[in-house]
Amino acid sequence: MNLPYLAYNSLVSGIFASLLPPALLIRWARRDMRSFIDQRLGLKCPPAVRVKPGLEPRIWIHAVSVGEVAVAEVLMDALLQHLCGSRLVLSTSTRQGLMVARRRVGKMADCFYAPLDVIPAVRRVLAAVQPQILVCLETELWPNLLAETRKFGARIAVVNGRLSLRSVGRYRKMIPMMRRVLENVDLFSMVSREDALRIESIGAPGARIHVNGNAKFDIRLPAIPSRVIEAIRQRYGLEARDMVLVAGSTRQGEEKVVLEAFRKISRRFPGAVLVIAPRHVERASQVSRWAAEKGFAFQLHSALGDGRKRQAKVIIVDTMGDLFQIYSTATVVFCGGSLVPLGGQNILEPAAWGKPVLYGPYMDDFIEARAVLEGCGAGQSVATEDDLVRKVLEIFDDPVLARSMGRAARQVLSVHQGAAARHADVIRSLWQPTPDRSLQGKF
Fold first, then answer.
1. Between the ranges 56-60, 147-151, 227-231, where is the mean pLDDT highest?
2. What is the pLDDT of residues 356-406, one digit of tens each?
């Protein structure tokens, strides 16, 4: 182990040691946190993900959270078409990610929490899963996970890889470490040429890098029956003529802007409805206080349905995994994480529903998606509260414009599809059938 790895593991071990006692205390006190803590610490691996003889290749896909789960879904579809009989397992790092994963891909893969990047935890999971290929979605570059997987004898691919300018700046401060980390990866299947150049600049071997597009363009509407979509509209008490602004995945510093903008929008459209879905649902109570301060009556998403009807103009989403379906109710969508410098959120999800999409200027993590939507007129950037008011009113005032933007969104997604299949081909190229291969870990 070289000096950068020693330094990294000293830091990780120190953090781990300091967090272990409170983690165990929380585990003892809160039954609902036990599986999360056990799996993140590598203490237990769900029986469902343990190796089952005869199913090959065994592919472990790691998707950090909800956004990557959508990519994992289309990638798994492509893999199962080309590698029939393969065994897929999917890990996520967040509770929300795991819940969405089980709902969206539970029939294709066993889902579990990824271990922390601590060597003993990683080794326990590798021994249980026995992967032959590890697929890291986006750019999940965990040094111990990659190094221990390599020691175990599995092949490794970074798929749908993207690297923002912010990330490159951080990684360039530790080039010696990153070069050793990236040497463990067999293939990099990147979203764009810019992403390919960026990952090469921090130490990835150029011969292993390929550009195959963004699998997020392959996102499809899940098989949601029309009655389910209609049930959402009924839950919100919406009529076909109602104007609805959905502000999805909002972050600290954005909700007050959205609420103030909606106050101005309501002067022109007094019957309009605002749905705010904070990126982290635990902030729903904070958003509720701000709504009250602005003078809005509000209701929580969880408090509607089962005969309880919407009476307020503002709905605050306090549940996990519902935003994608909620987008179906929108007249126009604002995607958060973009009025503040946090890189933006996935603007392709509302586009898949055929909705006009607005977002702030900070879209570093979705530059390609932004360019595509703006190129066809389906997406528009708003820099200020007044911009947001003006664009929403423009769309509310012109149903023809709203429909035109929505159609353009759906059409441009179909034109750019196919990346998931190309990424799957990269993974398939790593598969070398070895019937006599031992299933024992190589530590």
1. 147-151
2. 999 999 998 888 899 999 999 999 999 999 999 999 999 999 999 999 999
Residue with tokens 């182990």: 1
pLDDT tens string 332-364: 999 999 999 999 999 999 999 999 999 999 998
Same fold across 53-211 and 226-415: yes
Q: Which fold has domain 53-211?
A: Rossmann fold (3.40.50)
Domains of the chain: which residue ranges? 53-211, 226-415
Domain 226-415: state its class: alpha beta
Compute the residue count for the chain. Answer: 443
- Give phi and psi for 247, each to the nearest 5: -105, 105
How far, rounded to the nearest angstrom, does the alpha carbon of residue 104 sit from its chain's CA centroid? 13
Provide the token pair at 288: 């509720």
- Angle at which helix 385-397 crosses helix 255-268, to 10 degrees, equals 40
The DSSP line for 29-96 is H-GGGHHHHHHHTTS---GGGS--TT--SEEEEE--SHHHHHHHHHHHHHHHHHSTT-EEEEEESSHH
